[in-house]
Amino acid sequence: MPGRSSVRSLGTEQNGQGLVELALLLSLFVLLLAGSVDLGQACYAAIEVSAAASAGAQYGTQHPTDTAGMQRAALLNGPNLNNLTSSASWGCECSDGSSSSVSCTATPTCSVTTVNFVNVKTSLIYTPALNIVGIPSSIILNGNSRLRTNH
Question: How far is 82 from 118, CA to CA, in rounded Å?
């Protein structure tokens, strides 16, 4: 009886079950992979923002009063970062960090020696590619580098 065997096998056949499981797991895997790539891009941007500040400060050790040059050096070090901003300053401070004066307008009163410094700050607003609940829609990444100079 052909009719009976097909009724019996109707509840036990698994045609397509593996395909459905694969589709469910594959979509979860793709979501995890996309999230990992997005996190990697955010980490890369954070490293670049910090490195840009360092490059600006390194330029400033050779040209301590050229704040525009320090900013330009920082921006040139982050060419892959759209909307990277930078600011720079220089000044004098006590070697123990107790007192400082921006642009050396007044010499700080120190019981130790006075040294010169440059400070470069960089900032970038990073927008993740995925909008996931619990993760902000934009993240502010900041870099800061402060170096002493011989000038």
Answer: 25
